[in-house]
């Protein structure tokens, strides 16, 4: 028996036989020098293989768009872009022509060079995109060498897939109903397999190092996606313990489901899902999401090599508004306008800024690039004709920015009206509160918007002047600092006075303790990764509204004297008295990985 620790990527406990998938990336490739007279034929072989790969990819795009989602199909559209990349093609042809290398060897050399540059990038999301390059290379090599399609599509019974890492092509070729779990050597929270596993609710552990060399096909493994561990050929005692964990998890799930069915006596808060293009929306209803409270549109830009066109955006947004109808008659998608800059850079973005988090981010970027802004607004408006949608602006610091953004919206509406294109002309427009200046001026903003959505991830960073991604200052990342609490309180009270809803859509919404704190201060909606909704629902339902009001009074008083840790401990003690199994629920269902 051996237990290997890795990264908890998609929670849950599962046991089953191993399907060991050894990709063909490391297979030995033919490498030889061509006689001069064969160079022309080799160039032709390369071009024919590229044409065949293009045909295959076009087929995959159509198939995936029909079977999965159009945003997943975009991954393969990007593969087409990589396949036709002029620099890559010229470099490969140069090696064939000048060094007389065979195609396979020339391609491996060029792709290795590009892969290294991707892997050196700081942004984990971009680093992960080296997998797309691998995927295109593998597909080309299969065409060149005549090797069969990946073995993953041959899976015919329930298995735990153990692999080095999976490319997007491999992931979409999986017969999903037979996949119990994933265990991979590599991969991160933003790898394709991680996103897919979380979206489908399949347990997964990534970053296991050399798990592929520690198991054989057919070995029995216990996979703990909640704590990030895989045990191979466990002894009887360990298996029994694990079986008890599986049962306990099922009991807790059943209890969560039951609490969902019962009439709510506790705090009334709408629970919404944070979503992003590229992830299937199918599981949102099972978690009980009442809508999509934050649609992170920037992922359409981050995932691709080019900016998404207005038409591509319209298709993606329409898909979301159609899917949201399954969550209830009032359910809607809150589209957040492009939140780019800071830690999320578009490929090929110009001018490096010394202080990107304080720079040309989000609404500032959009107001400086009206062409991009207007195209996005038109795409959201067009989608709004097909279902319930709302729009919100990120990173608004001043009332003038809000007014300028709304003026653009009116212009976009006029353009569509002139063209006879339908849209919802009562589209609700809200504003994110994630900068202290907006929170302090919440009364002014509340008169001009239909809702607020507090982005605590940024509000904490800007209040505390502590970079949200910098480990060295993470001790200052304090959602319960009295300064942050007062800003949330002020915003929620301004919303209440104006009669508009006030949401929290930062990660703090999925912390049971903080969810109760925000609700007690008057926050009316919480938006989070859908899988955390059941625990948050049970937690909120355990607090009678009158107790919530008392808690708000206690916390307001504490803000005059206490620090963040004491306030958190105070709310936790309050919760422990009402939800005795709070800690156990957290240990089974606490957020694993990041939701983006
Ligand atoms: C936030 O800042 O809390 C938020 C939801 O936005 P993001 O994390 O995408 O910046
Ligand atoms: Mg933010």
What does this structure look like?
This protein has 596 residues and is α/β, with parallel strands linked by helices. The chain has three domains: 2-23 and 150-235, Glucose Oxidase, domain 1 (3-Layer(bba) Sandwich), CATH 3.50.30.10; 36-145, PtsI, HPr-binding domain (Enzyme I, Chain A, domain 2); 268-595, Phosphoenolpyruvate-binding domains (TIM Barrel). 48% of the residues lie in helices and 13% in strands. Strands 1-8-7-3-4-5-6-2 form an eight-stranded mixed β-sheet. Strand 5, helix 8 and strand 6 (204-206) form a beta-alpha-beta unit. Helix 2 packs across helix 6 (130-145) and helix 3 packs across helix 4 (103-119). It is globular and about 85 Å long. The two termini are 34 Å apart. 47% of the residues are buried. The model has no long low-confidence stretch (mean pLDDT 88). The site of phosphoenolpyruvate has 10 residues, from strand 10 and helix 18.
């Amino acid at each position: 028996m051996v237990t290997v620790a890795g990264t908890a990527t998609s929670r849950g406990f599962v046991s089953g036989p191993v399907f060991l998938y050894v990709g063909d990336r490391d297979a030995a490739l033919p490498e030889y020098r061509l006689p001069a007279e064969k160079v022309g034929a080799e160039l032709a072989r390369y071009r024919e293989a590229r044409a065949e790969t293009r045909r295959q990819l076009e087929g995959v795009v159509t198939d995936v768009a029909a079977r999965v989602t159009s945003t997943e199909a975009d991954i393969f559209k990007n593969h087409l872009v990589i396949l036709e990349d002029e620099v890559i093609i010229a470099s490969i042809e140069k090696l064939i022509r000048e060094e007389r290398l065979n195609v396979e060897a020339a391609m491996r050399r060029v792709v290795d060079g590009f892969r290294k540059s991707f892997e050196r990038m700081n942004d984990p999301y971009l680093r992960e995109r080296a997998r797309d390059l691998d995927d295109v290379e593998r597909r080309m090599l299969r065409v060149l060498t005549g090797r069969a399609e990946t073995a993953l599509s041959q899976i015919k019974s329930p298995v735990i897939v153990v692999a080095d890492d999976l490319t997007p092509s491999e992931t979409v070729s999986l017969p999903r109903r037979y996949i119990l779990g994933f265990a991979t050597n590599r991969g991160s929270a933003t790898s394709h397999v991680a996103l897919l596993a979380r979206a489908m609710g399949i347990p997964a552990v990534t970053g296991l190092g050399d798990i592929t060399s520690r198991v054989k096909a057919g070995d029995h493994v216990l996979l703990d996606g909640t704590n990030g561990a895989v045990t191979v050929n466990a002894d009887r005692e360990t298996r029994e313990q694990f079986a008890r964990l599986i049962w306990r998890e099922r009991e807790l799930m059943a209890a969560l489901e039951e609490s969902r069915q019962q009439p709510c006596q506790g705090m009334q808060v709408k629970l919404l899902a944070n979503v992003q293009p590229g992830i299937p929306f199918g599981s949102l209803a099972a978690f009980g999401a009442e809508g999509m409270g934050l649609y992170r549109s920037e992922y359409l830009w981050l995932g691709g090599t080019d900016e998404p066109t207005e038409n591509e955006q319209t298709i993606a947004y329409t898909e979301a508004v159609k899917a949201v109808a399954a969550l209830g008659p009032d359910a809607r998608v809150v589209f957040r306008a492009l939140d780019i800059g800071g830690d999320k850079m578009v490929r090929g973005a110009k001018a490096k800024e010394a202080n990107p988090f304080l720079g040309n981010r989000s609404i500032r970027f959009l107001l400086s690039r009206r062409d991009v802004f207007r195209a996005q607004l038109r795409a959201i408006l067009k989608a709004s004709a097909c279902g319930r949608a709302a729009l919100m602006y990120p990173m608004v610091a001043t009332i003038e920015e809000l007014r300028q953004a709304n003026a653009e919206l009116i212009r976009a509406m006029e353009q569509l009206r002139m063209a006879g294109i339908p849209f919802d002309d009562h589209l609700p427009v809200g504003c994110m509160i994630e900068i202290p200046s907006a929170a302090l001026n919440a009364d002014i903003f509340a008169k001009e918007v239909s809702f607020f959505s507090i982005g605590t991830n940024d509000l904490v960073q800007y209040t505390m002047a502590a970079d949200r991604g910098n480990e060295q200052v993470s001790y200052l990342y304090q959602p319960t600092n009295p300064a942050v609490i007062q800003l949330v309180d002020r915003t929620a009270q301004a919303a209440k006075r104006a009669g508009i809803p006030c949401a929290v859509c930062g990660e703090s919404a999925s912390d049971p303790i903080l969810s109760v704190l925000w609700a007690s201060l008057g926050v009316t909606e919480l938006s989070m990764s859908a899988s955390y909704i059941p625990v948050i629902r049970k937690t909120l339902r355990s607090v009678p509204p009158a107790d919530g009001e008392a808690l708000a009074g206690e916390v307001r008083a504490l803000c005059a004297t206490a620090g963040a840790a004491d306030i958190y401990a105070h709310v936790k003690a309050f919760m422990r008295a009402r939800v005795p199994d709070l800690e156990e629920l957290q240990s089974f269902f606490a957020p694993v990985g990041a939701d983006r």
